[in-house]
Structures are given as structure tokens and as C-alpha cells.
Specification:
Blueprint: E1 5-6, H1 7-10, E2 25-26, E3 31-33, H2 35-38, E4 42-46, H3 52-63, E5 75-82, E6 86-94, H4 100-106, H5 110-116, E7 120-128, E8 132-134, H6 137-157, E9 163-169, H7 176-180, E10 184-188, E11 192-195, E12 198-201, E13 206-212, H8 217-220, H9 230-236, H10 238-248, H11 254-259, H12 265-277, H13 287-300, H14 309-316, H15 322-331, H16 337-352, E14 358-367, E15 377-381, E16 386-400, E17 403-412, H17 423-428, H18 440-454, E18 461-464, H19 466-469, H20 472-477, E19 483-488, E20 493-495, E21 501-502, E22 517-518, E23 523-524, H21 525-529, E24 537-544, E25 547-560, E26 574-580, E27 586-591, H22 599-608, H23 611-622, H24 633-661
Parallel strand pairs: 3-8, 7-9, 14-18, 18-19
Antiparallel strand pairs: 1-2, 4-5, 5-6, 6-7, 9-13, 10-13, 11-12, 14-16, 15-16, 16-17, 19-27, 20-23, 20-25, 21-22, 24-25, 25-26, 26-27
Helix pairs in contact: 10-13, 12-24, 13-14, 13-24, 14-15, 16-24
């Protein structure tokens, strides 16, 4: 039975004047029905500039979580009735001027947007009154309102709509009704809000959904996908004018200024940076993302305390929408990423590739709060040395006598991320549909194979830490063209002499043995380190940042025993390399290098793996590698690529310094 809430209470004294609108009360009796039973009785009514518009305003003000603010400009408002009873309110107005993911999806430039934006409308309110409980009603009403909108908007404003947009607060709603009504999810807003004349990150990102009213809407709006040549944009586009301003700011990181303190280098930094980043300009179709590339990379090289999107945009982009545009640049803007990676790797190869070099495999962890960032989980995080809520990236670096650098990376996705309960999270984080679970060694092998196929980085060695050194599958899969130098744990089991295997004798009880076993027991490598019959030999390993490095060494041929193996005949020997530092720290490594290799070569290889740690330290201390606040797969990998590009610019500076000082690079 209806409770009959008086309009005087519901509408705070509002009195409707038109005869059609004399409604003594609003029936708030729960309406629980199937959509097919009430569909024929539904009626949608345009209430613009009628007495019912005030009723629409008050219902939205009372029951919609965003409330009601007076709408400026063109708009339509609809009330939906069921048997003369209002049950829903819907409205459309003019579209937002800039929405990064929408503009990328449409693929229009500034001039096209200014000209054709009136043909894009925004569904800014959708309210179903709280006592109405009809499954699938929302998607049905969206479709019904669109049918009327296509007729009413041209009649009222003389403009035919081609495309609709709406924003969904994903902390409150899943956008199910829009998906059911065939709207397309295209991404998120950037999560920035205007505070005064600047933008600050508030984190309340909204999902953006689009609905084409015309199949050929891009052609109707002049968006052919064919843009002016980049060189023309450079001359005319306002975004490229920002570049000179960005370059002249004397906000270089103090470490960079220290690197470049040789006379004439500091003054040349802006020109050097401009020439270096300009190599990547052809990876973008428009001028705006090129300027964002300059700004973001320049921000990574700056003395900003926090090198995330907000601070970088506020410092290096003279535009109040800078944070939002830069966020979109990292997450949704069109890049030719494969081309950018190729340009970066070719440049790095030209400078440091060497026949005696080493590919190095390692990982780096990034502590994160929350559970919505791509790949985040409680897992071992090397940067804090314990299990922590974090993301972990697998990296392949390179070191040689000419220098060092990171070549490529991929984010490790924990296995639980591929379960059904993570389906929505994978979609929200733009995880590629074709991605499947792979272990870190499997990811590393794929990265190494791609590097090998590129033929850009000559190398004799592959260095790795214990995670990869303890993986038989990983070691066996390494190409024969490389020798590996792999760290292992101190409890790794080995034989000092080649083992023999036989089936144990039957002892008269239980099943007869059928599996061969070693006739000699294994021992931990730590036992060999403590064996006084094998002397320590002090060796020169190479030059470090603080001068010559000497360590005590034990080096001998052994036979590796993997825990899962029962027999393997014949078995190849390998080198066990034990190093004791001057501080007494002992490290254990194995290598499949030839039996006749000089010990000095193994000593050299033992030192070559550590520059990847230097890469991580520099990237985190100077380049904001761990400052990012992105959640998506795309943005994480773009950030890591730009950090590598910024790191490579440091190498450019060092090479300039070397030319003037003629000193060793590392």
C-alpha cells in the first residue's frame, strides 16, 4: 500500500502549476516486478521547460548521489512513468571538452574536437528511485531514452548527435547497465581535480563509456585517422612550443649535474636532451604526446622530490590540464611502443655492446598499498628483503667494459591474478587477454630470446641471481652461444667427483627398488667453502667505484645435484666459484664455462653481474623508478621504458665526459 509521501514534504513546498502536474503524493510503495511485465506500461516524457522540470530537479537532488546543480547550456531531461507514477529520471547535456581516453578512442585532433564536439552528448544523470526494484530496468531505460534523444535533440537544438558518453564512479557502480545496453568501456578518467588554477590528484577515477549513435561517426566528424606530417605539427602545434620552456628550466637532478661538471657539458644539457629525445618523435602521430614525452622524461631527470605524474606536470607543463593529459599519455595515448623500444635498444647497443659482455637477469620489487594495481600481491620484494604487498618486474640488463644499462623488462603476474575472481581486475588494469601465467624464469627466457633474435647485444655471458641459478629448466634452456654465471644458495648440493648410479640392493622387505641412486652422497657447497684442504686464493676481480676489488677465491669443478633428480648418466661437470669478500661475506656461483677457462676470466665474470644492481640504484635514487602511481599494465611498462630512456641519457652525458677526461666509464 502506498504511504503517500506528500509533495509538500518531498519537494519542500514546491507547487506544480500546470494541470497535468497536479500530483497529490508520490507513491513510494516498493515496486518489485519483472521487466517484461511492466515494459508496455512504461512512458518516457521530455520535461524541459515544463512544470515537471522542477519535479525532475527535486527527485535528482534528493535521491541521486551527485545531487542536482543547475545545468548550463543545452540539455534534455526525461521522467519515466509507470502507470502515472514517476520511477526514474534521466538527462543528457553537452559533452566534456576534454576526456583523454575518449579523445584517443575517437582519434581526433584539437581542431576536429572544437568543430564536432557539439555532436557528442553526455549522459550526466541516471536515477532509478530507490523503491523501484526491477531487474534489467536500467539498461532498458537507457535504450528507451536514446531512442527519444535522437529525435528530441535535433528538434530542440538543430544538431544531430553522433556519439554519447557517460562517466561511472567505479567505487560505487560496475557500469553493468551500460555494458548491457551495448556501451563501450574505453578506460578511466585520470583522477585529477581542479584546485584553483592547478590540478591535484584525488584518485577518484571514473570509468568512461561511449555509445555510437551513428556507425560512421568518425567520418561524420571528419576523423579520418590521417594526420598531418609530424614536421608540420612541430612548426604549428602549441604543445611543441612547451618543449623549449621545459628544456630551459635549470632543475636537473644534482647527480646529473655532478656527472656533467666538466666545463661546457652543463651548458649543453638542454641541447643534448632535445637531440636525444627527438629520436623517439616518430613513435607518435601527434605533437601533444611528443611534448608529454619531453615533459615526463625531463621530470624523471629533474630534482623533483616526487617524480610522479602530478608533480612532473605541474613543473614542466604550462597547462592546467597537464596532469590529466600526462596521465592519459602514459595509460591510453597511442604509441608505437615496439618502435620506441627498438630505437632505445639500438642506441644502447651502439654505445655499450661488446663481444665480451654479459646479459644479466634480475628482478626488482616495488612496494604498493592496496590491491588494485596490476600484478600486486603479497610476495617476496627484494627492495625490502621480505614478503610484502608489492609488484615485481623481471629485468634483463647488460654490462661490458663500455658501460651498462637495462635492455628490457616485463611485470611478473602472480598466478592468482589469472583466476576467475580476478577477471574484472585484469580488465580494469588492461592486462592483455592473451597473457597467461608464467614463472619469472619463463619470463626471463622469453626476454633473452627476443634480445638474442634482435642481434643488437653481443655477449659471452649470462649472469643471474639464485632464483634463476637454482632453476634447472632455466639453465638447460639457455642458448649454447652463452656461458652462464649463476648465483646459488649455500645449501646447494653437489658432488666433488663424477657420481655413479645403480639400483640399490633389495633388503628383503617392501617393494623392490627400481630407481637408480647415486653411490656417493652429495654435500652442501658451504661445506666446500669451509674445507681447509682447498686453500683460498686472493684474486684481483676488477675496478669498482672505490678502486680495485680483491677477494678470496675457491674455484673447482663439481657436479650439480638438483633436488628433483634421481639419476642422470652421464653428468656434465661445471665450475663452482666461491668468493669471500674483505668483509667476510661468502657468495656461491656456478658456471658452465669450459674446463680450461682461466680463473681470471671467472673472476671478471663474477664482477660483471653487479652493474644491474647499479642500474636499479640509479633508477630509484635519481630517476623515480619507484615513484609511479599507475595501476594499468600499459602505464607500468611505459614508465619503465621511459626510466630506461632517461638512464640512457645519463650514459650520453658520461660518454661526453669520457671524451673530455679520457677516464674509465665504470
Amino acid at each position: 500500500m502506498a504511504t503517500g509521501i506528500p509533495l509538500s514534504l518531498k519537494l519542500k513546498g514546491f507547487v506544480i502549476m500546470e494541470p497535468r502536474n497536479v500530483i497529490p503524493s508520490i507513491d513510494d510503495t516498493p515496486l518489485v516486478e519483472e521487466i517484461f511485465k511492466i515494459k508496455s506500461a512504461l512512458r518516457i516524457e521530455l520535461v524541459n521547460r515544463t512544470g515537471l522540470e522542477a519535479l525532475w530537479n527535486q527527485l535528482v537532488k534528493l535521491y541521486h548521489y551527485l545531487g542536482y546543480n543547475k545545468t548550463i547550456g543545452a540539455r534534455v531531461k526525461y521522467l519515466v512513468w509507470f502507470n502515472e507514477r514517476p520511477i526514474a529520471a534521466i538527462s543528457y547535456n553537452q559533452a566534456s571538452y576534454r576526456v583523454g581516453v575518449r579523445d584517443t578512442f575517437i582519434d581526433w585532433n584539437d581542431e576536429e574536437r572544437k568543430k564536432y564536439l557539439p555532436h557528442v552528448l553526455n549522459n550526466n544523470r541516471l536515477l532509478i528511485l530507490p523503491w523501484v526494484h526491477v531487474k534489467n530496468l536500467a539498461s532498458h531505460l537507457i535504450a528507451l531514452s536514446i531512442k527519444h534523444l535522437k529525435h528530441d535533440w535535433p528538434l530542440l537544438y538543430g544538431v544531430e548527435p553522433y556519439l554519447l558518453e557517460t562517466f561511472v564512479d567505479q567505487d560505487k557502480y560496475k557500469g553493468t547497465c551500460y555494458r548491457a545496453a551495448n556501451w563501450h568501456y574505453v578506460g578511466e578518467t585520470s583522477g585529477f581535480g581542479k584546485v584553483g588554477i592547478t590540478y591535484q590528484y584525488h584518485g577518484n577515477k571514473k570509468g568512461v563509456y561511449l555509445y555510437p549513435l551513428k556507425k560512421n561517426y568518425k567520418q561524420l566528424m571528419g576523423c579520418t585517422g590521417r594526420h598531418k606530417p609530424l614536421r608540420v605539427l612541430k612548426k604549428s602545434n602549441k604543445y611543441l612550443e612547451m618543449v623549449s620552456m621545459q628544456l630551459q628550466k635549470n632543475t636537473w637532478h644534482e647527480g646529473i649535474l655532478e656527472e656533467a661538471k666538466v666545463p661546457d657539458i652543463i651548458d649543453k644539457l638542454p641541447e643534448m636532451f632535445n637531440n636525444y629525445i627527438n629520436r623517439f618523435a616518430d613513435c607518435f602521430k601527434r605533437a601533444e604526446p611528443i611534448a608529454n614525452l619531453y615533459a615526463y622524461t625531463r621530470g624523471l631527470l629533474s630534482n623533483l622530490e616526487r617524480k610522479s605524474v602530478g608533480p612532473i606536470a605541474l613543473e614542466f607543463i604550462d597547462n592546467p590540464r597537464g596532469p590529466r593529459n600526462l596521465q592519459n599519455f602514459m595509460k591510453n595515448a597511442q604509441w608505437d611502443e615496439e618502435k620506441a623500444i627498438k630505437i632505445y635498444q639500438e642506441g644502447l647497443s651502439e654505445r655499450i655492446s661488446d663481444d665480451e659482455g654479459m646479459l644479466t637477469v634480475d628482478e626488482s620489487g616495488f612496494v604498493k598499498k592496496g590491491k588494485h594495481s596490476v600484478g600486486v600481491a603479497r610476495q617476496y620484494c627484494g627492495s625490502v628483503g621480505k614478503v610484502e604487498n608489492s609488484q615485481v618486474g623481471v629485468f634483463v640488463g647488460y654490462s661490458g667494459h663500455k658501460g651498462y644499462g637495462l635492455i628490457s623488462t616485463q611485470l611478473f603476474m602472480p598466478e592468482k591474478w589469472f583466476g576467475e575472481d580476478y577477471t574484472q581486475r585484469r580488465q580494469d588494469c588492461a592486462v592483455p587477454d592473451e597473457l597467461t601465467f608464467r614463472t619469472k624464469p619463463q619470463i626471463a627466457l622469453d626476454l633473452i630470446r627476443k634480445i638474442e633474435e634482435s642481434e643488437l647485444f653481443k655477449a659471452k655471458w649470462i649472469g643471474m641471481d639464485c632464483l634463476y641459478g637454482n632453476s634447472k629448466e632455466f639453465l638447460d634452456a639457455i642458448s649454447d652461444k652463452y656461458w652462464y654465471f649463476a648465483d646459488i644458495h649455500n645449501n646447494t648440493q653437489v658432488w666433488r667427483t663424477q657420481p655413479t648410479f645403480k639400483v640399490p640392493e633389495y633388503k628383503g622387505r617392501g617393494p623392490r627398488p627400481t630407481i637408480m641412486a647415486a653411490t656417493t652422497p652429495t654435500e652442501h657447497v658451504s661445506k666446500i667453502a669451509g674445507d681447509e684442504t682447498i686453500p683460498w686464493v686472493k684474486m684481483y676481480l676488477g675496478e669498482g667505484s672505490k678502486g680495485p676489488i680483491h677477494s678470496d677465491i675457491k674455484c673447482l669443478q663439481i657436479y650439480r645435484a638438483f633436488a628433483k633428480e634421481t639419476c642422470e648418466v652421464p653428468r656434465k661437470s661445471c665450475w663452482l666459484f666461491i668468493r669471500r669478500s674483505e668483509e667476510g661475506v661468502i657468495r656461491y656461483s656456478i658456471s658452465n664455462a669450459p674446463v680450461d677457462i682461466p680463473t681470471s676470466e671467472l673472476c671478471k665474470a663474477s664482477l660483471m653481474r653487479w652493474p644491474i644492481e647499479q642500474c636499479f640504484n640509479e633508477a630509484k635514487d635519481e630517476l623515480g623508478m619507484d615513484h609511479y602511481e599507475f595501476r594499468s599494465w600499459t602505464a607500468w611498462h611505459r614508465h619503465m621504458l621511459l626510466v630506461s630512456i632517461a638512464s640512457s641519457f645519463l650514459l650520453e652525458i658520461r660518454l661526453q665526459v669520457i671524451d673530455k677526461k679520457k677516464v674509465c666509464l665504470w
